[in-house]
């Protein structure tokens, strides 16, 4: 019989088969097949009564979780033995049954007798009745489906393709006419040429309705197989365009939400649902779950659940359907009536037993406790037409209370503080100087020391703040004069003359104006002339930062010794401006000389005439004395005519010196002064006579890549754009990005390192943090992007310091050049710029996995194709959000591989 004759055969009944045979046929399908098909009467009770949330293979956060649970709650999809198998492919006959359920047509099937289909049009027995119904309802096109090409293999058990599902969806929505209009338009996808001509219109409409999206590389993959999770998502999204009303689905406004119950009002009818531990909550604007606490009364929702037990709740409009009005309260009248005063008398409002009444503090009260002439705010619902009052709050009156909350803002001019109390209410009160007390851990605070965000306990009497106790502070600052400094404490004198002692946190930051990388020893502690400082305190009241605001000292850098009297310990020096100064040394003077530890007894032998020294003094008392062997600062200027340079020292002073004898710059031999840019950080090592720079060492920070690591010999070989170098790390500090000390064993080949150099001598090594994963979002306007790491966490990156994007060897500087399909490796460069390296990718057909070499073998399009690839030990293999094992990949599977240094770090199954 010709194919043409077969296609014209009527769809008629034939001899009835035993129901048990149909059941048996359904049971022999793979377990996955039952997800979209009722399996048998014996399992119906367990599959159809499964509550939402019980699919053990659909984990919280799974990308299609919302859509699977929604359709499961409506009975459009059902589980089998507690499993959904979201990653399995869907057959055409399964998709037909799901579409009929979506259209609420499954009950129209005639299961009392079997049906005849063309001999070569093969469908499993269980599905034949449904396929016939689909043809009868126009869900399937007989000419297309029964074409000769479609009869070469089993039609029913064939995997449903993405373009075939697009047609099924649009037909299920009754929008075939729209597809006919759009049939001649290109889809806009890169693989538009692969789209079947008779499917192009359906794809266009599906995309326009936002039912289907493209894949990586702007592809639609029209012949790609559709998974169960994808199909559930397609039909779930399609419900927004469907006019079918499902029996266990209700939409409306939440009229009451309390005590584990949710009531929905719609067109004069109220339905109440019980909420349970398995109830799933979502919003129409997001794929992620929300909590019950995120749902507010009087918002619009869709609720799905049989026998009034809610399985699925979706907020469709988060705007509360209420209006607010305020006025002067008059009285509570009989019959649940409230009266407000108006210009012409009284205005009447209605309430019922569900109406809440609260005072100005948000505490529940009884209607009878409302006081005449109080200012009150009513909230009235606007969804039912009755305008019932749902909430009454007293907004003014005398407030006396003690409560907890957080500081929202502080108005120092108006002397008021805005709090957010424990109930979530924002309220503002004033304080009075002299009577209001502010404290933190027994210390009295000034209002200027209070910080927004701090947790507090506050007392209000007669509407005035009487006390505020900071119970869990955030960072705050205090100021004073530094008088003592130890390894664990700092002592300062406050403006009122009292002394305060604070504990130092681990590694507090030191900030001194005009000084690079200052340390604690650079601070001046003195009861008379100590630094005026600002201390930043953490929530534990420990000092995390010391900043010098001003200094009272005299500093003479590069001063020349005129005379030193060892008996009187008077030192006469001449500064660089040829002015003489006399200072006196004592036992508290800090004496410094490179390579020696002088004291007052032997320092005199060093202080010979014309010796260069650095002196810090308060009045005539010398705080520190350093014999100059080197100067540290920046190169401020170069005068080629006089062959002199100007150094701006770390203490802010300047020195003019002759050209240095040698230049020491890492990575460059035979350096000259022209190789040193003005503004470079330098160290000038002086000759014995102290008037000539023997070596000008240029301080640099370079980002290098670890080539080899030998922890046994403390040797590290690194690569950089100028070549390779070997570093002896035995005495070098090695830290991570957080500044914590690490061992050389924590560094591995391929890691990036920031190395600081003093000339050609390395000073410190810092391991650079690398983040690798897929870009989740890019906001070029805000200079921000989010990357989902392969480990699963999402990291946000602000790139205000500049960005360099490296793709296929080319570098660009615009975030707009990135897409959410890119896989990237991100790190910070030494200059603060964000370096983003886009990982290369290859699309291949899978062949096999070689476990002996941990490599993956793909099929070759030609003999020149590379076909064997090394896998990373933690390679991420997935389809959508479903993680796969390499053993689950099958021959001819289409895969995309992403590489990091020629190692496969991610495989996406198409």
TrEMBL record:
Residues 1-37 form the signal peptide. The keyword Magnesium does not apply. Residues 51-113, 186-249 form the SLH domain. InterPro entries: SLH_dom (IPR001119). Keywords: Signal. This is SLH domain-containing protein. It comes from Paenibacillus pseudetheri. The lineage of its organism: Bacteria, Bacillati, Bacillota, Bacilli, Bacillales.
